[in-house]
Each structure stands twice: as C-alpha cells, then as structure tokens.
Amino acid sequence: MKIDGTLFRSVWVDEQDGWSVRILDQTRLPWSFDILRLTEVEAAAHAIRAMQVRGAPLIGAVAAYGLALAVRRDPAIAAVEAAAAMLAATRPTAINLRWALDRMLARLRPLPTGARAGAAYAEAGAIAEEDVAQCAAIGRHGMALIAEIVARKPGQPVNLLTHCNAGWLATVDWGTALAPIYAAHDAGIALHVWVDETRPRNQGALLTAWELARHGVPHTVIADNAGGHLMQHGEVDMVIVGTDRVSRNGDVANKIGTYLKALAARDNGVPFWVGLPSSTIDWSIADGLGDIPIEERAATELTTITGRALDGSIATLRIVPSDSPAANPAFDVTPARLVTGLITERGCCAASAAGLASLFPEHG
Ligand code: MRU
Questions:
Q1: Where along the chain do its domains lie?
Q2: Does the Cβ of 211 fall within 6 Å of ligand 1?
C-alpha cells in the first residue's frame, strides 16, 4: 500500500544488503513512522512478542524471515530447530506463526547444510508473496459482497464496521478484513467504515484509522461499546473482521471483543463476515471454543495508555487505580453459528466443516 505516494509492505528484505529484514515499528504508529532493521533471530522474536509487528499473517511472515536470519548465522539443523522453537513461543493464538515455521522446517530439514540459507530466504519470500496474493483475492471476493449491498441501497454509501486491525499492517499487504474495503473503495464504491477503537491496545484507533486515512477511505473511530447501538439504528450494513485462528468447524478466534460484535450483529440481522487466508485455518482443531489457546497479555496494556500529549510529546498515563488488579485476555472465540460466512482466497463459504471442506477439499 502507499504511504504518502511511496509503496510499502509491512516486512521486506533490505534492498542494500540483501539479507537483513525490515519492518515498520507498529508500537510507534501513528505518532512516528519508524523502519526497523532486524539482523538476528532474537530481534525478530522480540518484534513479534513486543508487537512491533502483529496480526496473524504478518507474524507468520516475520517468523519465516526470522528463521532465515537464524539459518544465515548457523545452518546446523539443531540450531535451526531451536530458533524455530523460540519464535513459536512468542505468541500463542495466531496459528499462522506455527504454520509458517512448520513450512520452513519442512523445506529446510532435508537440505544439505550449505543449501539451507538460500532456501530459507526463498521460502520466506514465497510465504510473503503468497500472503499478498491471497489477501488480494480476499479483497476481490469480499468486494462482491459489498457490491450486493450497494445493489440493495443504490446511491447510498455502504456502512461497514470492523474491529482491531486486519488491514495491510496485519498482513504483508492489503489486509484480510480491510482488503475488500480497499478493493471496493478503489473500484469507486461509496463506503464508510466504523472503526472500533479496540481496547486495550487500540489497534483500531491507532492502526486501522491510520491505514484508512492514508488510503483516503472515509471512516469514523468509535468506542468499542458503540457498535451495538449503531447496529440497532440501521447504521451498519455489514461487520467484517479478521481472525487469528479458525477451527475446522468454523469457530473464529479474533481480537477480544469480536464475540460481542457478533452477538450484536446477530440480534440486529447484520451480516457478520470474516476475512482470512487459508494459513489461518487450524485443521487440527475441531472445536475452536474448547481448543484455541487464548493469549493473556500484561495488565499494563489495560492499566496504562500511551498517546500524544498536548505539548506534542508521547506520554504514557496510568488510567486505573494503582491498587486495582487488571486481567487482559487478548482474544475471544466467536462460535461458527454467529458467523455469516468466511471470505478466503478461494472464495466465500459457510463457517462450518462442510463449508471449509467445499473450498479446501484437500483437507476434507
Ligand atoms: O494482537 P494482535 O494485534 O496481533 O491481534 C491480531 C489482529 O490484528 C487481529 O485479531 C486481526 O483481526 C486478525 S489478523 C489479520
């Protein structure tokens, strides 16, 4: 996507040296646009854990490049496997992380030691390129759903609601939930996006709003609690979110608060769609509610808030009494019965075992 006229992706190999890995520091956005250079696998692991990069598809791609950095340093398979284990332990919920590392290891294990570094960069590059192509396809399939809404209310903008950040910053490019929005906007469809602030880390208010503004997409940031009210008053035509892991039966793990939006959508007859590349499907889990691990993050994400102070400085404030404990589950699971459908790179399907098997019969 373009930022002030320059094309960017969220991760890339440095053009000058051809091996170090560049990322955008998402903990600094939108206040500061900082490009980081990763030269060691430990730095890649830190970037994922500290959420300098985040979003399921992106952490998969960064983990793959992180493993390439490890292979460059030591291509012995024991060292590569130890590095993969360290990367896999950074965040538990998004399955793309494990998927990318498993794919890298499957490619690297059979190779002679000397061939591993080149193959690791090639495989990480392939993972990144495939993610871009898959997200672009999600955009095309999701745009058709938005166009159907236009046909029902010609001449009026389509109102979408999204939660968290599932745009190009959460993937390598285009995004999952935001890809159809970008595609429809670029095709001239008039639309407006309600952006949930997404407490506690505010990925919606900070990242989604920034992305949409850079691309010129009309949007309004709302408090997380406002969505139900807007749906009751006919202000939302469609909810579209991303996901960190989908189980074989179509249950959807996503940023905390997604489930409440799905309940409100169901109560108000608003379609609730989920955009995802197939790398986010965990075919080994039959029941998302019971089996998807939910990340617990630090209480300080909830008890403090960071933003730009009126004097222009970046400040962090405590917003909870210092003697009150806080809990911070980072994801929830929306049961498949509340999901209108899944938008994948192969098209749309029901959120069910049969729906997923119809698009991905190889996993049937
Ligand atoms: O904790 P995060 O910011 O890494 O959360 C992941 C997400 O961005 C979302 O849950 C997103 O909707 C799915 S990933 C495209």
A1: 2-129, 140-363
A2: no
Separation between Cα atoms, residue 166 and residue 244, nearest integer Å: 10
- Which of the following CATH numbers is that of domain 140-363: 3.40.50.300, 3.40.50.720, 3.30.450.20, 3.40.50.10470? 3.40.50.10470
248 lines ligand 1 (CB under 6 A): no
Taking the centre of ligand 1 as the mean of its atom positions, its distance from the CA of residue 164, in whole angstroms, is 6
pLDDT at 5 over 90: no
Whether residue 364 has pLDDT greater than 80: no
Cβ–Cβ under 8 Å, residues 258 and 74: no
Cβ-based neighbour number of residue 341 at 10 Å: 18
Residues 6+ apart with CB under 8 A from 300: none
* Residue whose CA lies nearest to ligand 1 atom number 7: 55
Q: Which listed residue (244, 251, 282, 332) is catalytic? A: 244
Q: What distance in Å separates the CA atoms of residue 362 and residue 364, rounded to the nearest whole number?
A: 6
Ligand 1 and 244: CB distance under 6 A: yes
Instruction: Assign 304 a pLDDT band (cuts: 50, 70, 90).
Output: very high
Going by C-alpha positions, the residue among 306, 321, 253, 256 that lies closest to residue 282 is 253
Give the pTM.
Answer: 0.97
**Ligand 1 centroid to 59 CA: how many Å?**
10
Compute the distance from residue 210 Cα to the ligand 1 centre, in Å. Answer: 16
User: Which top CATH class is 2-129?
Assistant: mainly alpha
Strands 238-241 and 158-162, sheet pairing: parallel
